[in-house]
Design goal:
By secondary structure, this protein is mainly beta. The chain has one domain. It contains one helix and 21 strands. Strands 1, 2, 3, 7, 9, 13, 15, 16, 17, 18, 19 and 20 form a twelve-stranded mixed β-sheet that branches. The chain has a seven-stranded mixed β-sheet with strand order 12-11-10-6-5-4-14, with no helix packed on it. Strand 10 and strand 11 form a beta hairpin. It starts with a strand and ends with a strand.
């Protein structure tokens, strides 16, 4: 059973057992830099638990969407989005449905690429998305207006000057996070640290869950932000998205495709995400 421990304008933290996390149906994720506060994207939880991620905060609306197969790309750092891609002139929304269906669509709901199947949200775990952002100060600035329906979730990046950033979203079971709580610890979150088993690298996360009115309250999104090497081709504010991967806990398929986009796009629709 969840208990609200912080509630107010534009913030909400709830506690479920020893785990504390932010909870909201509508969240704006933004970066706090040495130059200001910049909105990056939104996260919405549907009534059935589906995850919707709109990207309305970059002025440039010409981009390219594609279903990418990294297995056949000669250079994994250079994704050819033009192959089987679609050029669009509006911002799009990425949807990861509870059923596992993933898609890009316009605000009105029209699909812009064929749907593909990723992992279900009501049991499995896995990566939801990676977003590379270049020239952060080119995104829309945040106006701290009161809006009780929207959670404002900041990544504080004022430790040093930076122009590029990678934000990742991972879907995890609450019980798995709690199992890693240090003995004697009373509670954990909404900011947590974890060490990667393969690399030994420590990463920091914000925990974002669904409100109690939504069905998938046994999981949370673990959101992390870290530096990424600046892409040579990103000479103006740019975002590169990857999501909709295959089942994290299953056997990897021979050709693990994913959905990807890049904004803005020029005549040569390729991305060096470095």
């Amino acid at each position: 059973m969840t208990t609200t421990i912080i509630s107010g304008d534009q913030q909400s933290v709830v506690q479920d057992g020893p785990l504390r996390y932010h909870a909201a149906a509508d969240t704006t994720v933004y970066a706090v830099t040495l130059k200001g506060r910049y909105k990056l994207f939104r996260i919405l939880f549907g009534k059935d638990g589906s995850i919707y991620i709109p990207f309305p905060y970059l002025d440039t609306k010409r981009g390219v969407l594609s279903a990418v197969d990294p297995a056949i790309q000669p250079n994994p750092k250079k994704l050819d989005l033009k192959r089987d891609g679609v050029v669009v002139t509006e911002d799009v929304k990425f949807s990861h449905h509870t059923s596992g269906i993933v898609q890009f669509s316009k605000s009105g709901g029209q699909d812009l690429l064929p749907r593909r199947r990723s992992f279900r949200l009501d049991g499995p775990i896995g990566r939801i998305f990676d977003l590379h952002v270049y020239w952060i100060d080119g995104f829309k600035q945040l106006a701290l207006k009161k809006n009780k329906r929207t959670l404002l979730l900041p990544f504080d990046l004022r430790d040093k000057e930076r122009t590029s950033l990678r934000i990742s979203g991972e879907w995890r079971r609450k019980r798995d996070i709690v199992d890693n709580l240090e003995p004697g610890g009373r509670w954990l979150g909404p900011r947590v640290s974890a060490v990667e088993r393969k690399t030994g690298r420590e990463r920091h996360f914000l925990l974002l869950g669904q409100p109690s009115s939504r069905p998938l309250i046994d999981h949370v999104l673990m959101l992390s932000a870290e530096d990424v090497q600046h892409a040579d081709g990103a000479v103006s504010p740019t975002m590169i998205f990857m999501g909709g991967w295959d089942h994290h806990e299953g056997t990897p398929p021979a050709t693990p495709k994913m959905l990807s986009f890049m904004y803005p796009v020029r005549a040569e629709a390729s991305s060096d995400s470095a």
